[in-house]
Amino acid sequence: MPEPSTPVTGTVVMLGGRSEREFGVVRELGYRVVLLDERIPWHCMPWVDAHVDIGLDDWGAVADAIRDELGDERPAAVLTHTEPRLPLMAHLGSLLSPGSPGLDAEAAANCRDKWRTRTVLEAAGLPVPRFALATSEDEAVAAASRIGYPVVVKPRDGAGAFGVRCCFGEAEVREAFGALGGFLPDGLPGALVEEYVDGPEFAVQTLTRGGTTQLLSVFRQRTTPPPVFVELGYEHPCGLAAAHHEELAQLLQDTLDALGLRDWISHTQVRLGAEGFRVIEVNARRPGGRLVEMTTAVSGVDMVEAVTRQVLGLEQALPGPAVAFARYTSIVFDEPGTVLYDEFVPDGEGPGRPVVELEIAPGETVRPKEDPQGGVYGRIVVYGGSAEELDRAEQDVRRALDLQVVFGDGLDPAPSDSREFKSCC
Known about the structure:
Layout: E1 11-15, H1 20-28, E2 32-37, E3 50-53, H2 59-70, E4 77-79, H3 86-96, H4 105-112, H5 114-123, E5 131-134, H6 137-147, E6 151-155, E7 165-167, H7 170-183, E8 191-195, E9 201-209, E10 212-223, E11 231-236, H8 242-259, E12 264-273, E13 276-283, H9 291-299, H10 303-312, E14 325-330, E15 337-340, E16 355-358, E17 365-366, E18 378-384, H11 387-401, E19 404-406
Parallel strand pairs: 1-2, 1-4, 2-3
Antiparallel strand pairs: 5-8, 6-7, 6-8, 9-10, 9-12, 10-11, 11-14, 12-13, 14-18, 15-17, 15-19, 16-18
Helix pairs in contact: 3-4, 4-5, 6-7
């Protein structure tokens, strides 16, 4: 078990989690970790001080379990890095640690429910796509007709772009609406039908302290064209002119203020259309995949540590060194077949070291990126002092991998990493 770097000063209750870093930073700051989840993996056991196996859907039972575990001790904080558990975290924080900083219940609900997000922002006069909530196929078609095609149909809640589809006609709207139950059978009722904003997309990571929002990173996001939005990669710098960057910073400040997010982190999707910026989605969490490490590399701020310090009411650490250029490229395929490559582990350490991850083994079969069951099978992240350095670094990785697809052999394709469907326009 990792030892805390300072004498233990309290207990942090964590709801779910699978990453050593999530637990390790709490202990480094001098706190015990009590982990609650329905099925706690064995590999997490050494990273925590105590654990309670309990389902997290019964909020009252979870609160009672925490009281039983801690006795008279008040938790220093309740924390989760898992988006579906944010409302529970906010509820337990106000119940068991009233007055503590962090995400409150209203802000959690405002961000978790996409319809509520848009309703709040529209009422505040902030730019969002035209939208409507539909509870049936007919309502979805009627909403699309009012808004005008193309439209985007998406679930009210859920992470990433699960179930998100751009539709160009009535038949596609009906198909997209009908498919949502298969993506999120336990999600909030109804679906969002909204205007498709055509233009470049940006992933914006922020840290808000006392109501003041700091942009940590702004990445230009690349995706496949509609109807589905498969993530192809991210770039830093994002390419925005200084005036647009200032406008974006003010938009994020106003957006998070309207949603009630005062002491937390966020990952927000924004598009720059013909009429200016439009807020596409606001997530009260850090980004997925390797965008956390990429944000650390370009800003010097570790979002995992930052949100942990924030919820504990601690001063933020000074930013570390930052790189000037970064690129995240998804590993996707144009044709189906059997994938072959050489194992490769990059040399070096620290934030400038390339990241190379593949979720498939040599000899497994894959689908093309446009296939409904296709998508992303890994990623390459490189850093440097110029765009040319990024090109060379990525080319070096690809040469070392010798990644290729040969004709299919009749085997079932390997599942893609659907977590990478992050574009939510």
